[in-house]
Amino acid sequence: MPSATYSTEITLAPTGGAELPEVVDGDSLLLGPTSRTRRFVGAEHGAGVSYFSVDNEPGEGPGLHWHPYTETWVLIEGTARIRIGERSFVANAGDTATVPAGVWHGFTNIGEGRLKVICIHASAVIIQTWAEEG
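The structure corresponding to this sequence follows.
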């Protein structure tokens, strides 16, 4: 089957020689014994990116914070009110939003069901500064 080539793709030959990573058990990434949110720190697994796999009930979401790198959100399920800087908008399952480095941001589940979001951090480590402690 031929593969599609896109103008934004770069094709290179594999370098090989690197130690192959193992599958990371999802339960090992949970933030706590009752949490459904997972945190993957890329540096701990030989990856150049990190992520949160968020699973929030209605009304839940991270408070305002910022990172020294971009963050991209992919909404898997539900509806969120997203704040990026002074802007606020609604995003639904299937939507993607990217936050520039150094900009305050956060989101809240405004739907009636669960909100599932993959929050991709363009960094091998997670660095964040919260607007309010706790």
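The mean pLDDT is 92.
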